[in-house]
Amino acid sequence: MTWIKRILLFVFLVCTATLLHYYLPQRDIVKIVDTDVKRMDISKGSPFWDRQDVGTDKNTTRDVRFISTVRPNGKTSVYRNEDTGWSFPFYLKFDSSDLSAKAQDMASDKDVWVAVTHYGWRIRLFSIFPNATKIKQVAGPNTFLIPWFNIAFLSLLALLYFFIWRTLRRWKAKRIDPISDKVEGEFKDASDAVKDRFDDAEKNITAKRGRLKSFMRRWFGSP
């Protein structure tokens, strides 16, 4: 039972960490080199794509904006630029067109370094792109950015988990443990009673066996 609890806890922690890593905002220091619009066929309900511009018709085939960048180490990064609207994840992004125009303006200057705020992963095998939510110019490629939002969010989440764990533990100590102790005590009493009956039966059989041996010796003599 203990191993089952540990396995379930491990699976829960892995799933939670995966979701947090995907949906929490991340920032990359990059240089914008190009912007593009591609016609994409997106399956309905795909978890790695968001939605077309808010206010337009919902179609599985639609134009998706992309932002092409280069990192300080020379590696490339490509971000999609889609609205999230009022739906999950709750970034409340409605300005993908404005973000595209801002990216085009920054791409014209080859010496401008920007911090791209995004969420999601880049998986080339499945053509999965992170979604850019904000672009901000920074001083240079070595700019250090502190993830204040992630620190605050994870701290609050840890406090929430601790509060839930402590509440469940108190509830278990108050509601479950007394019942468990009572059942365990009754089971122990029943076991002791059964054991006492077996002991009495064994003593009774031993006594009858002794009387039978005495009777046999008295009438038939010792073997």
Blueprint of the fold:
Blueprint: H1 2-23, E1 26-41, E2 61-70, E3 76-81, H2 96-107, E4 113-119, E5 131-138, H3 148-220
Antiparallel strand pairs: 1-2, 1-4, 2-3, 4-5
Describe this structure in words.
- 48% of the residues lie in helices and 21% in strands.
- With 223 residues, it is of the alpha+beta class.
- It has two domains: 144 residues, OB fold (Dihydrolipoamide Acetyltransferase, E2P) (Beta Barrel), CATH 2.40.50.110; 73 residues.
- β2 and β3 form a beta hairpin.
- The mean pLDDT is 85.
CATH architect. name of the largest domain: Beta Barrel
Number of separate strands: 5
Can you list the strand order of the major beta sheet?
3-2-1-4-5
Q: Into how many domains do the coordinates divide?
A: 2
Radius of gyration from CA coordinates:
35 Å
CATH structural fold name of the largest domain: OB fold (Dihydrolipoamide Acetyltransferase, E2P)
Question: What's the helix-strand series?
Answer: HEEEHEEH
